[in-house]
Amino acid sequence: MELTKTLGRRMLGAACAAAIAAPLAVATPAIAQSYPSADETLDWTIAFGPGGGNDIMARSIIEILNKYDLYDGEISAENRAGGSGAVGWGYLYGQDGNAYGISTTSGSFVTTPLQADTPWQPESFTPVALLATDDLVLVVNGDSEIDTIDEFIANAKANPTNIGGTGSVNVDFIVPTLFAEKAGFEFDYVSFNSMSEQTTALLSNALDAMVGNPGEILGLIESGDLKPLVFSGQTTPAALEGVPTMGSIGFDIGVSMPRGLILAPNAPAEAQEWWINTMKEVVQTPEWGEYISSNTLTPTVLYGEDFRQFLVNTKNGFEVVLREVGAID
Amino acid sequence: MDIFADLMMGLSVAISPINILYLLIGAIVGMIVGVIPGFGPSAGLAILLPVTFGMDPIGAIMMLAAIYYGAMYGGTITSILLNTPGESATVASTFDGFPLAKNGRAGPALVMQAAASFVGGTVGVILITILAPLFSQVSRSFGPPEYFLLAVMGMLTLLVMIGSNWKLGVISALIGFALGTVGVDLETGQGRYTFGSAELIGGIYFIPIAIGLFGLGELFYAFYNGLHKTGTGGIVQYDNEERFWPTAQDWLSTRMTMVRGSVLGFVVGVIPGAGATIASLMAYSTERSLSKNSENFGKGEMAGLVAPETANNAASSGAMIPLLTLGIPGSASTAVLLAAFIMWGLRPGPLFMEQNPEFAWGLIASMYLGNMALLAISIFAIPLFVQIIKVPYRMLAPCIVVVCALGTFSVHASFVETYLMFAAGIVGFFMRLYGFSPAALVLALVLGPLAEEALRQTMTISRGSFSIFVERTPSLWIIGVTLTLIVLLPMLNRFGKPKVDQPAKADG
Amino acid sequence: MRVAFFVVLLAGAIFYSYVAYADLNFLTRTGRPGPGFFPRLIGTAAIIFTLWTLVEELRKAERERTDPRKWKDVVILMALACSYAVLLKLFGGFVATVIFLGATLMLLNRAQPIKNVLVATLVPSGVYLLFDRVLNANMPPALFELPI
């Protein structure tokens, strides 16, 4: 009884899928010829408020698209902020199959679904490209006796150490946790609300060390108030020359925050392909290089399915660590 | 280092017709943005930031800075006229500002707030000019133990605000503390009272609660008292010509208040994360405990308006110190300014003022000019704003509801926050009706999370030991100041009291 | 009414405490104050204080006497405000504001219908221009577009 019911439902489902797929199959060639159509406005969702990292990235890309005439139609960028990105990406998620809905991702793209009951997951969307990653630098106070990452690890094995970061369900927590696991030391994580509170805490010698985005503390590193020890990305940015990466000392953690581009779920393959080709041009422009260096991002480029795989890996990595410490259940 | 020469160089950079134009545009836009409930300086800055993308950095920063402190001037106007704080830093200004307007002194209250803002802002810039390096030491000596002590010190002000019925005051504060625990727990990342909602991850934001409790709550209360049938929302009609300017008594009685408010506000503003809201609340309660007319506070005492106003403007100047000297933004607004610096390719940090003297000193110089411009704009604009209270209340009231709702929505584009604002309005009405203290609720909502987070950070750092509070010099300083306040203030008050009781009664 | 408000507060305090005791840990695994530490203290204190005031209230011999006419307009305004909140979600900032202002003014200010219509259309237009055009700020988007 139960079996036949499910079977019946499955067959019905298959029939429905076929019925939907048929008109789609006819429609796709039309898109292939004309994507992007000049009559359609590109609806660019920015899932955060103006002035934030996600906003600046989206507007930088749009500026490049306009400057080099890469996109024919009109682009309308809207800040749909709220719920740590849940509102904006939820809006894009609702446009299933639309070729003209697009958005940029940042760290919350992975962490918000882990924390709240969002209907979408990072891999639900049509991936275009990973363009860069936000990586972190581990710093100690400039007055500290610790000068190198080896000394830091040796010290942390011998004495109780704390490391500060912003937030807890966040890359700031995951990066030092994974690093400590690989390097074999233990530490207490102290989480702060903002970069500024954690930086003053370190300057006031309340913290032993902290992790942060290099872009926000370059000034303090340059003046010697903070000492950089190790960088979590694959390659060290120019501004942090001489600082080893976690990989180069043998403790590669393979986690970073994705700054990429996504389309609505199940967007037509032609649209995905068009955007992949276009982004290949965008990342070659000098303006993009400027954006990367002024925000101290790590240029890490992955296209299409590779990007989806990257998102899945990142999410799983986060989930394991967060579950271990009981931050999510 | 010759400060005077630096400042002159800054002035020569700032004073060009186009830059002055940007400054004026920024000041006016800032004022408008500040007047709209919900729109604080940080929201205004973030929204207008894209406009400056193509501009010359010095002109752009002058405009942005003018928006920033212009919003601080404008934010008080609705606090005084409608009991609706324009932004969080002007909540304390409603306590006596609105009663003043009710007593028919809306004109003098608005003029005094503009003057107080000017004094606070200007004293703040003077302190930046001469003492920036010194104060940068203050902002780099604050760790979690100090934040915890600061929050505890701020909570002493709760005692002042708790109102006549202490049990109801305690309940009000407990509601505030309870609301403050909503959101993802900072330390463990566990959701508290979020019930799976993405909008509550970041916790309950202060603005919708404050707008609802004060703005809508007051409006419902006025309806309860039938004021929509009589005319003007409880504000006594007054003659624009005769009673516009403050009396000599207003100036004389508040001159020391301005000095205290400016210094206190500046110092609190220098501490990253503390900010103008805490500064204004602390200035209010300090002034109230020092005043000889303390029983008159909350009923329309000029010092009760001047203290928070000087403090919040001085604090907004103070917040520039960590930004300029360390590259650390002390508030949400300066965080937007920092984003702008980075966008223009500047690298904020301890070497910033040395490497970009024209930019830094141009900014400081423009703050002197901006405060003067805003004082003038405010005085000219006051007669316009005062027209609001001449509109019959039955027509004005629905418009206030609209502005509160749309203003709240615009900040984070959040329906949940808009609903919270309406709910807070209904709760605020009952709180007023039954003698609770909305002020204590709001203060608890600000200080509760600060205290909890700082204490738990401290416990992690010290590995569970309380001795950390007496091992750090800055902590000892704060403990010393707090004890002095607790012990000394009541004594001072006791000396003052018997002499003053008589005239206060005669006055009422 | 007063008693009812205290009962509502008490119910809120009990619910708050229930979550604090059921879902949130008092201490972390390392023995320091956990996520439930302060909620439990706050919730317990809130229950004690609301109970205390509630009992005092009930013991009072005389009951407050309220004039129902005083309540009428407040309740109407609250109801209108709540429906405005719902309208915002359904029809967006502009349309909801026109409806809310129109309805409220018609009730409160029956004597001047023309003035009401003017306010109900000009105020939302002004706010729309200021928020959407000048400041580029968020206005509530409409769930259903009205054909206007």
Automatic annotation (TrEMBL), chain A:
Residues 1-32 form the signal peptide. The keyword tRNA-binding does not apply. CDD domains: PBP2_Bug_TTT. Keywords: Signal. InterPro entries: BUG (IPR005064), Bug_dom1 (IPR042100). It comes from the Bacteria. PANTHER family: BLR4371 PROTEIN (PTHR42928:SF1), TRICARBOXYLATE-BINDING PROTEIN (PTHR42928). Belongs to the UPF0065 (bug) family. This is Tricarboxylic transport membrane protein.
TrEMBL record, chain B:
Residues 20-443 form the DUF112 domain. It holds the Pfam family TctA. The chain crosses the membrane at residues 20-49, 110-135, 147-164, 170-188, 200-224, 263-284, 323-347, 359-386, 393-413, 419-448, 469-492. It comes from the Bacteria. Keywords: Membrane, Transmembrane, Transmembrane helix. This is Tricarboxylic transport membrane protein. The lineage of its organism: Bacteria, Pseudomonadati, Pseudomonadota, Alphaproteobacteria, Rhodobacterales.
UniProtKB/TrEMBL annotation, chain C:
The chain crosses the membrane at residues 38-55, 75-108. Keywords: Membrane, Transmembrane, Transmembrane helix. The keyword Transmembrane applies. Residues 4-140 form the DUF1468 domain. Pfam families: TctB. InterPro entries: DUF1468. It comes from the Bacteria. This is Tripartite tricarboxylate transporter TctB family protein. It comes from Thalassobacter stenotrophicus DSM 16310.
